[in-house]
Design a protein that fits this description.
The complex is a heterodimer of chains A (406) and B (404). With 406 residues, chain A is of the alpha+beta class. In chain A, 53% of the residues lie in helices and 21% in strands. Chain B contains 15 helices and 13 strands. Classes of the chains: A alpha+beta (406), B alpha+beta (404).
């Protein structure tokens, strides 16, 4: 086996320039593919992390079926959120933080101006851990904290519509479960500016959790419990653990179940990337098939001699296959090394992208070492397939005829 | 040596090793075909996104100046529903038809819970002329003749537990600033082209909205039909010029600037892909030509010995590469153009992320782009062969003849 590889390598070195061009083509292809993959990985990670940190959370507990009706933010689909219940969830392995919330539709009113708003009542202490990205979306002022009993942040657009400023007073109006309209006074601590969000979805507001419970007369209740997991790799384990604690009647939703658009976009990008990679690999492999065809043609007499000396057909087959695979392994290794190096440099520097619809997304492209292995395996298998026909042709030659060719 | 003679020789040389030439030209074919097909696909996707935007907003919209930027009480910036204004619009070249609308925000409620809604009030008959896709994309019948008929986005209807026939309350602020509520009867679950639309969209008859909002004889916008979607910006400009201050006109891609951003991203993506394809196919040609020169060293020596100029040798090998590039390129262009042509006629069912409905993607490409790719394939092939051809032309006759 080792001898076979050594002979194959020596054969490749006989035509250094030709082998080098085949290798260089593969290196460029693999480098390009991995550099793009690294960038796509970075973009996907940035969007995912941003989405999770902005309030989607790694996991969230809802009443069963809540997500299908979440547009209407029904407060009658509520769940327990007492200290004991939250503590039991917190005890589940890999759960790093637990944040109860009430999502409801209401109105914000100031003077004789009123506007509809999509409001979340959140616990500022718990959210700091579970949704650290919220503070990045404060465009003016600050996010209210545990000292502000009636603090609130509403979208800058709503502030302008209601002609309010920071420190201004307003009222939140909402119906409770019985349909009775209640009101609570708030003072504005800051304005929310959501990038990439337009129209109705941008009319958001945040108020303290306790104030929300009081307004909606839901003591000890919430509509959602956001959960932070210590590491995204433990998502499924944590999910199973939480599901076991909360029991039936509740859904434990992953971030990808909540932010369907982000998850679907990721799948689309991966599919496009797969097609483009397939095209690149196919063309690179045609090049290898070409080189191997040439190689067999040139060495017909040599193959005849080997056969005349008693070398087995499958050894000849193996020899030519080994040559194709060596080109692939060398090309893919060098290409992955270059690609991973480029991505690593880009990761250290980071890149700022202007998101569609404004807002800047900081992207750190990323590739782990598994891509090295993947690239080498895919290219080797492909090269083996590309070299199969020329190698089989070589192995089918008849010694007398092969020796008879000029 | 005439160019025709050169071409004949190059062709004959390419045929001497059919399998090798076939593999090399095959790589070019595949690269050219993929490049053209990806471009055609992206063209189709941009069209689809544009059509989706146009479905909901129309190719061009005419508003009172400041309506789109208004932060408080936008309904105060309304327009009269006036035959004079319509006649003035229809006189502008490129304006084929206009349809009056009112757009406003409201709260749609089922008695227990409620949701914010983006409401568009339309004149059913005139809307069908200006925005024909609105209903065909949604696979639905549209509004009925009932005065309080409403089409509600699928996700929104589901969230409120509404089915066709359900009565819901629509709450909105009137033009005067007071709140008003009217009942609407859900007639149709409008499949929306985007997740956002599905969650928020409500369509009601214009007259009912005028009642709800206290705006008799008033509208907030005219949607304009243009001959082709590409003309939208030009027509919007002509409308702005004709109506003067006090009015504004925006093309769909000015209202949704993300569409232009997506085009830039697509162009960037396609140039990277084409670049890598060029390098991969080019390296195949370089290798083939290198082998070709290597095999024919003695032949080159003979040609030189009988007086062929170095230039001629160089040209011969470049012509051979050009033949390979062009043969693969033309075959690839023909194949992908045929495929794109067929798919344009049949259409590809396509599901936009987050959409309720399956739309049709129609890939297309322009002759200019196909010719451009062919040109790149030809020049790329010749550039790849430059080094082998130069090597061949630098051989010394005596050494070349002596080599094995």
């Amino acid at each position: 086996m080792w001898t076979l590889i050594r002979i194959a390598a020596r054969n490749l070195l006989r035509h250094r320039r030709r082998s080098a061009i085949a290798v260089v083509a593969l290196v460029m292809g693999v480098t390009a593919v991995l550099a793009i993959r690294g960038l796509v990985n970075g973009v996907q990670r940035a969007f995912r992390d941003e989405t999770i940190a902005a309030g989607v959370s790694h996991l969230s507990i809802h009443r069963a079926g809540y997500l299908r009706r979440s547009t209407a933010q029904p407060i009658d689909m509520d769940i327990p959120a007492d200290r004991d219940f939250l503590e039991r969830i917190h005890q589940v392995p890999h759960v790093a933080g637990v944040a109860p919330r009430i999502a409801f539709g209401g109105m914000v009113s100031s003077g004789d101006l009123t506007s509809f708003a999509i409001i979340s009542a959140v616990d500022p202490v718990a959210e700091r851990l579970v949704s650290p990205g919220r503070k990045n979306h404060i465009s003016h002022g600050r996010l209210f904290d545990e000292r502000d009993g009636d603090g609130a942040d509403i979208a800058g657009e709503l502030q302008r519509r209601l002609q309010l400023n920071e420190g201004g007073l307003a009222a939140v109006l909402a119906s409770d479960k019985d349909g009775v309209l209640n009101a609570a006074d708030i003072h504005l601590t800051g304005a929310i500016g959501l990038p990439n969000v337009q129209g109705l979805e941008s009319k958001v507001g945040l108020i303290p959790f306790a104030l929300g419970q009081e307004l909606l007369r839901m003591p000890g209740r919430a509509t959602e419990i956001g959960i932070a997991v210590d590491d995204l790799a433990n998502l499924e384990v944590a999910r199973d653990g939480v599901a076991a604690v909360v029991g039936p009647g509740y859904d434990v939703d992953r971030w990808s179940d909540v932010a369907i658009a982000v998850a679907e976009e990721t799948r689309t990008q991966n599919a496009i990337f797969g097609v483009v990679t397939g095209i690149f690999v196919f063309i690179a492999l045609l090049g290898i098939a070409n080189v191997m065809t040439m190689s067999v043609l040139e060495r017909t007499r040599e193959i005849g001699t080997m056969m005349a000396l008693g070398v087995r057909r499958r050894v000849i087959l193996g020899l030519f296959l080994a040559e194709a695979v060596i080109i692939a392994v060398v090309g893919a290794s060098l290409g992955s090394a270059v690609g991973i190096a480029i991505v690593h440099v880009a990761e250290l520097h980071g890149m700022d992208f202007h998101g569609v619809g404004g807002g800047i997304i900081h992207v750190a492209p990323t590739l782990d070492m598994s891509y090295f292995v993947k690239a080498v395996i895919i290219c080797s298998l492909g090269a083996g397939a590309a070299g199969l026909w020329p190698a089989w042709k070589a192995a089918r030659l008849r010694p007398v005829e092969a020796l008879g060719t000029p | 040596m005439t160019p025709l003679h050169l071409l004949k020789l190059a062709l004959r040389n390419a045929f001497r090793n059919r399998r090798r030439s076939l593999l090399t030209a095959g790589a070019v074919l595949f690269a050219v075909a993929s490049g053209i097909f990806i471009r055609a696909w992206l063209n189709g996707l941009v069209d689809l996104l544009g059509r989706t935007a146009e479905t909901n907003i129309g190719a061009v919209q005419v508003h009172r100046q400041g309506f789109l930027q208004a932060e408080t009480e936008p309904l105060k910036l309304d327009l009269p529903l006036s035959p004079e204004l319509e006649a003035k619009l229809l006189a502008i070249p490129g304006v084929l038809a206009v349809a009056p609308r009112i757009t406003f925000e409201g709260l749609l409620a089922n008695g227990v819970s409620s949701s914010l809604a983006q409401v568009t009030a339309i004149d059913i008959e005139r809307e069908a002329v200006v925005c024909p896709y609105r209903w065909s994309a949604a696979h639905s019948q549209g509004l009925s003749d009932k005065p309080n008929s409403a089409a509600v986005g699928k996700a929104l209807a589901e969230a409120l537990g509404a089915k066709p026939g359900t009565t819901l309350n629509l709450l909105a602020a009137t033009k005067g600033g007071a709140s008003n509520v009217l009942d609407v009867e859900v007639d149709d679950l409008a499949g929306a082209a985007t997740a956002l639309d599905s969650k928020r969209i409500v369509v009601i008859p214009l007259a009912y909205a005028q009642t709800l909002l206290g705006m008799p004889g008033r509208i907030t916008e005219y949607a304009v039909k243009v001959p082709r979607l590409e003309d939208a910006r030009a027509v919007a400009q002509r409308i702005r010029d004709a109506l003067g201050p006090g009015y504004s006109a925006e093309a769909y891609n000015e209202i949704v600037p993300a569409l232009t951003d997506i085009m830039v991203i697509f162009d960037f993506l396609i140039s990277i892909v084409l670049g890598v394809l060029l390098v991969l196919a080019g390296s195949g040609i370089a290798n083939t030509m290198l082998m070709s020169v290597h095999e024919r060293v003695r032949e080159i020596g003979t040609m030189m010995a009988v007086g062929a100029a170095r230039r001629r040798i160089l040209r011969l090998f470049l012509a051979e590469a050009a033949v390979l590039g062009l043969a693969g390129g033309i075959a690839g262009a023909a194949l992908s153009s045929a495929l794109v042509g067929i798919l344009f006629r049949t259409g590809i069912p396509f599901h936009l992320p987050g959409s309720d409905v399956v739309t049709t993607l129609k890939p297309w490409t322009t002759p200019a782009f196909v010719l451009g790719v062919l040109g790149v394939a030809l020049l790329g092939a010749m550039a790849s062969a430059l080094y082998p051809a130069w090597k061949a032309s630098r051989l010394t006759p005596v050494e070349a003849l002596r080599s094995l």
